[in-house]
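Reopening this one. Same input as before:
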Amino acid sequence: MALQLGDTAPDFTQESTAGTINFHEWAGDSWVILFSHPKDFTPVCTTELGEVSRLKPEFDKRNTKAIGLSVDPLEDHEAWAGDIQETQGQGLNFPLLADGDRKVSDLYGMIHPNANDTLTVRSVFIIDPNKKVRLTITYPASTGRNFAEVLRVLDSLQLTDEHKLATPVNWQDGDDCIIVPAVSNEEAKNLFPEGWDEQKPYLRLVKQPKRS
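Same output, byte for byte:
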């Protein structure tokens, strides 16, 4: 059965470009972005790995680690890293798992037989510090991922874990948020003393509070 939101992210031990990864131990108390690639030396993946490497300062600010995966062997990963540096102007700065035995791919349901029975699809998982799966996105092999969207969802998850809020359509960090329906107006007065815009009893917009 495919992993669902709220499930515990499976633990594993696998080789990577950063050495042996014991996943839960490596993750520690960080958030994790785990994402898979169909194959080494492919054009779309090359651009994605360069972009995630460029975004490392943004992930660091959010207490988040990135880790990639491909079913090709470690020696191919290491050779590919040189191409990424050459073409993207950014060296690989996070682990890339060598999943030749498909152990991790199978644990996380990254192989979709009707798409391709040997290669992983472009899966993305956001995993929180409690090792719970908080987001899953699956892209087709032909479409590069939007990591600005991954960051946006990460910001929303971290904000709404801290405050009794949800984020509306197209929300960006700093935009107004929604007070969740489970919070009564009496409780909201204590949580949001500056008030809110009640458009409907179930739709109450409030300025985004400061994040810790």
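So the earlier flakiness isn't reproducible anymore. For the record, The chain has seven helices and eleven strands.
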